[in-house]
Write a structure and sequence with these properties.
251 residues; mainly alpha; 13 helices; Retrotrans_gag_dom; Retrotransposon gag domain-containing protein
Length: 251
Amino acid sequence: MTEFEKRLLQRVEQMEKVIKKTCRFDEVVDLQSLSLFPKVRLPPKFKMPSLDKFNGIGCPVTHLKMYTRAMHPLGADDEILAQLFQNTLTGVALKWFLNLKDSHTNTWEDICSEFFKQYRFNNEVDVTRRDLETTKQGAKETFSSFITRWRAKAVQMTSRPSEEDQLQMVVKNLLPTYNKHLFAQYFPTFKALVAAGTQIEDALQTGSKTLKASQAGYSAKTSQVSSSDKVHPWAFPLHQHPTRTNNITHA
């Protein structure tokens, strides 16, 4: 390639860059498509209510009901419901909605139909007792993170096990580091279990001496529980069970 041809090629490339920069935005993007209903107007003094945002997890019907029931008293018609629906979405759900074809968002009914079809499988995957029983603390998972994850799964059940059963499942599924300190303790509530587990978690971060002191302190507190209080059978190893002595059960 001659020197002249090189300079000519450079000029062509420069001209292409200039053309791209001067290209109008409305020639690249259909401005009308940016809004579902460009002519929609909000009622006077309308203020968007604060609602929980849907992130792709949960019941789509529940979300639609929550949104509609919050908006109707404010004077929102179907076009406003459709126009503002994206404000109640986040994460992958928002990305999915913004990528819907225009033909699928012509009306509020269309949007409801598409939304339900996309996330209806959420209703078909029920959390069962077995799911809770097999939800174990990860090798590098903190006690606090595990409790949060476990309870988030438990609240998805419409018919949950009793609190006593849930406590038993949680303690059983803890890492040995926690389980060995908690399996023989009495926990009347989740709050008590979380308090004890958090003490151990903090102690693990500061050293074993603190852990021993923390465990001794908690054991002293639990030993003060009145004999009239209900004692969970699972809360004691066999040799420490309050109703057993030398493998003989007292009446």
